[in-house]
Design goal:
The radius of gyration is 30 Å and the shape is globular. By secondary structure, the protein is mostly helical. The N terminus and C terminus are likely disordered. The strands form 2 sheets. A 3-stranded antiparallel beta sheet has the order 2-1-5, with no helix packed on it. A two-stranded antiparallel ribbon has the order 3-4.
């Protein structure tokens, strides 16, 4: 409607319209007005170019960008400071920061606006060290900065991990301008992101004025430093909480595994009348995925649809991971095909989800489609691909993809990739090949997963000799891991060597050797998630009807390990079936098994 009557307008009115449209984000309409005035022979001026060049950058119109640049040179506005800074910003948005720097260097007079823009350009394209270097060059040149310059420079210092210039700015902040809240917030953020939490707290406490951004930065800083209790205390100390602060606290809880607290915060946030945005929704979906809270995840999905949130790559990937980890892979596929702009993360999420849920052939089909498209697989994608091969017993396919990862995509395999391949070979009974792969692989700090995979295969195939040989190869720090003793004892138990099994298990009675307790999470009809942890007294566990467990879980096969032990009343219970050691468990809850590092398949 705004552009329906722009035809025939004089340049001044066109400039007003262009500015209004640009501020509304209607960049396509900005270009329509620009094409019209150019077609009528009107010459753009310094009031036209900044908004038109911004529109060109946002819309990624490289050809139009070069034409506009040539027009600015022809009409003499190339040397106008605001036109030049807009050209620099445009080229950076088009991925040509090198051209932006060339324009900056060619300017006969480097005005402050040009310094500020070039520093921001470097930050925009991720060249933080270059941004800091330019800020230091500006300092040496004797150019007097303004508040915007200092905030931009501190942001660059924060991202580059270079605190020298940032501390100098902090030192003369008050001397130059007096207290500046945006600059103080930027400094607190810089300190928290570079392991200088004490300096951040000291500055925060000395600030004569704070806003919600100040509180949010420090709450996130405490969470980043692993101090969830301090983050929580500061959060409740703030009397006026906005959406960003609520989201920061929820995200802190998710990062530290306090998933139920995160969901409780979400409920409290809603009761306070604060409506979540897409960032909050993505964080909450991650939370639901980690605890298998399907019902709450579905409710959040419905909430996002009700609020007309765009199903882009970020939101779509979070939904795919949530549904996949809760075992609803059909729903994950539905979300995947509805997504707009599938990126590598989305493809990886659905491939890993299908693989983990046992749909190996479908996962590999999607991987083939991914390779045909524009998305490029990464290391995590190949973990999903190798897992799919493992679930499907596709040994040759697994070998092929492992080689392609190195030779075609130049991705150096990590311990997770070796573990997948060892698991694949072990399940196929190719134990010698798996052992050779371990011998030939580069030394890694954390070798336990790969040894665990082969020890599990030794148990499945009754190869006691290899398990004993592997135990001697495990690094000393890993040999004290109780999971190693559990696996080795299970190998002995499978071979009915009970004395050896008991001897290995007895090592776990040492004070420094403690096995991590298994944990189960059950979501009931009220949307609350109950947590059960092995070793806790029954008084700490809420009552859950047997019908609920029967409805949520099913045991698809009955491969068991016989565990020999004596009950408290002295009865020999050798034949008691330890089904949780090897069974695949499926349901809308999630369960971590007790006795097997890699032999339990969980619906994730």
């Amino acid at each position: 409607m705004a552009t329906a009557c722009h035809y025939g307008m004089p340049l001044r009115d066109c400039n007003v319209l262009i500015r209004t449209l640009a501020r509304r984000g209607s960049f396509a309409r900005v270009m329509a007005v620009y094409y019209d005035l150019r077609g009528r022979g009107l010459v753009a001026d310094s009031f036209t170019y900044p908004f038109v060049l911004k529109a060109i950058g946002v819309l990624k119109l490289s050809v139009e960008g070069r034409k506009a640049h040539a027009s600015a040179v022809k009409t003499g506005f190339r040397w106008d400071a605001y036109t030049a800074s807009s050209l620099m910003e445009m080229y950076t948005m088009l991925g040509r920061a090198d051209v932006a720097r060339k324009l900056f260097d060619e300017m006969p007079h480097r005005f402050l606006v040009l310094w500020n823009m070039m520093i921001r350009c470097y930050i925009r394209c991720g060249r933080f060290a270059a941004a800091v270097s330019l800020a230091e060059e500006m300092e040496r040149s004797g150019v007097t900065p303004d508040r915007a310059t200092l905030v931009t420079a501190v942001t660059a210092c924060s991202r580059a991990g270079n605190l020298s210039l940032g501390r100098r700015i902090h030192a003369y902040m008050n001397a130059l301008f007096g207290f500046s809240l945006p600059l103080a917030n930027a400094l607190v953020d810089m300190y928290t992101k570079n392991d200088c939490l004490q300096e951040a707290v000291k500055l925060f406490e000395s600030m004569p004025e704070r806003n919600i951004i100040s509180w949010t930065i420090l709450v996130s800083g405490y969470a980043l430093a692993g101090q969830l209790d301090m983050a929580r205390a500061l959060f409740y100390q703030c009397t006026e909480k906005d959406l960003i602060l609520w989201t920061a606290m929820i995200n802190a809880c998710v990062q530290h595994g306090s998933y139920e607290e995160a969901l409780t915060l979400f409920r409290n946030m809603q009761m306070q009348g604060v409506e979540p945005d897409r960032f909050t929704v993505v964080t909450l979906l991650t939370c639901c995925a980690n605890i298998g809270a399907l019902d709450q995840g579905e409710w959040i999905h419905q909430y996002a649809e009700g609020r007309k949130m765009k199903l882009d790559a970020v939101l779509g990937t979070a939904l795919i991971e949530m549904y996949s980890k809760c075992g609803h892979v059909d729903k994950a596929l539905q979300v995947f095909w509805q997504m707009q702009g599938k990126d590598a993360a989305a493809w990886t999420a659905i491939i890993c989800g299908l693989a983990t849920n046992g749909q190996a052939s479908r996962a590999l089909e999607l991987f083939e489609e991914m390779q045909i498209g524009k998305a490029k697989p990464d290391g995590i994608t190949f973990i999903g691909v190798l897992s799919a091969c493992c679930h499907g017993g596709l040994v040759d396919e697994g070998r092929k993809h492992f080689q392609a990862m190195k030779e075609v995509y130049q991705i150096e395999p990590r311990i997770e990739h070796y573990s997948c391949l060892v698991n694949l070979l072990g399940r196929a009974g190719l134990l010698d090949e798996a052992e050779k792969l371990i011998r030939d692989m580069p030394v890694d700090k954390d070798t336990m997963p790969i040894f665990g995979a082969l020890l599990t295969a030794c148990k499945a195939h009754g190869n006691v000799e290899m398990s004993e040989r592997l135990t001697k190869q495990i690094p000393e720090q890993d040999s004290r891991n109780p999971d190693v003793n559990v696996l080795v004892s299970n190998v002995y138990a499978t071979a009915s060597r009970w004395d050896d099994a008991i001897r290995v298990r007895s090592k776990m009675t040492h004070p420094t050797s403690k096995k991590t307790a298994g944990c189960s999470l059950i979501e009931n009809i009220t949307l609350f998630t109950f947590s059960f942890t092995a070793g806790r007294g029954f008084t700490e566990v809420p009552f859950v009807p047997l019908e609920l467990l029967d409805a949520r879980f099913r045991v698809p096969h009955s491969k068991i390990t016989l565990t020999r032990f004596e009950s408290d009343n002295g009865l020999d219970m050798t034949s008691f079936p330890n089904i949780w050691a090897t069974n695949s468990i499926t349901g809308s809850g999630s369960m971590n098994a007790v006795d097997d590092i890699s032999g339990v398949n969980i619906a994730m």
